[in-house]
Amino acid sequence: MRLLSLASLALALLVSASSFAAEYQTDKDIPYREGETLTEYQKERCKVDVYYPANEKGFATVVWFHGGGLTGGSKSVPKELKNQGFAVVAVNYRLSPKVKSPAYIEDAAAAIAWTFRNIEKFGGDPKKIFVSGYSAGGYLTGIVGLDKRWLAAHEIDADQLAGVAPLSGQMFTHFTIRSESGIDRNTPIINELAPAYYPRKDTPPFMLVTGDRELDMLGRYEENAYLWRMMTGLGNKQAELHEVGGFNHGTAVPPACQLLVEFVKKHAAAN
Fold first, then answer.
1. Distance CA 189, CA 178 (A)
2. Which of 85, 155, 163, 254 has the fewest CB atoms nearer than 10 Å to its CB?
3. DSSP 197
4. What is the edge-to-edge ordering of all strands in the sheet holding 47-53?
5. Is 152 helix (H, G, I), strand (E, B) or coil?
6. May I ask which residue range the UniProt record assigns to the signal sequence (predicted)?
7. What is the distance between the alpha carbons of residues 111 and 94, in angstroms, rounded to a whole number?
């Protein structure tokens, strides 16, 4: 577990400020679901943007899920993840109340599966696929990274991922999913739709990040700390937990993404 100060984060940002010397390209609105039975809403929402270094080969890729409480938001590439030498697959997924759980989890798994099948066409290495996202995107990252059934539906083992990095995500059952069942959003629940329901010893590199425990959303640090404690208690040597001191849920995005950049570069080099 690591508490990061404002000063240490500023230094890390400065050290990594130099961008990767390559031309980048973005291919937009690529469907990641196929079939004649798709609904109009699936056709509208189930798309990705692929941001990648043109004319490069063998690079890593981050599949990125946006935030928005599972009720809002849209795909985009955080500026901190640009020009870093890896690709970003920014994902749109269906949202509540037009759909209910587990539709958004199924979409997240489908987008990751699409990346495994297609990233080589863009020059990426399918052995260097990372998954991350912020807030609701962090929740989706955690659940597909720990509960193997979602990727198994696409004949992918979650342990094929090069790394999993939920950023300020709920590790208990998401409050929108609780609300769908008539449970108050502040009532903590850990059921089969919670990442914390699936602590495992045998994961890929797994990085949990939150804002300051006193400034981030209620209980956000504690949920992540609980999962980290359970994973490390099982003997997981790959799990790490970072708290970015002095940052709230909104302002923690840049330093959390910076930690993600370091995480991806470190573990991509090891593959």
1. 8
2. 155
3. G
4. 2-4, 239-244, 206-211, 163-167, 124-134, 59-65, 87-91, 47-53, 24-31
5. helix
6. 1-21
7. 12
Dmax over Cα atoms in the chain, in whole Å? 53
Instruction: Name, in order, each residue with C-beta under 8 angstroms of 120's C-beta and a sequence gap of 6 or more.
Output: 126
Summary count for the chain: helices (H), strands (E): 8, 9
Residues 94, 96: Cα–Cα separation, whole Å? 7
Q: Where does the chain show beta strands of DSSP type E?
A: 2-4, 24-31, 47-53, 59-65, 87-91, 124-134, 163-167, 206-211, 239-244
Whole-number Å distance between alpha carbons of 24 and 262: 20
198 is written with which tokens?
A: 């699936």
Q: Which domains does the chain have, with CATH numbers?
A: 2-270 (3.40.50.1820)
Average pLDDT, 10 consecutive residues per value, the chain (271 residues): 59 50 93 96 98 97 99 98 99 98 99 99 99 99 99 98 99 97 93 98 99 97 99 99 98 98 97 79
Q: Are residues 248 and 6 in contact, defined by beta-carbon separation less than 8 angstroms? A: no
Q: Indicate whether this model's pTM tops 0.85.
A: yes
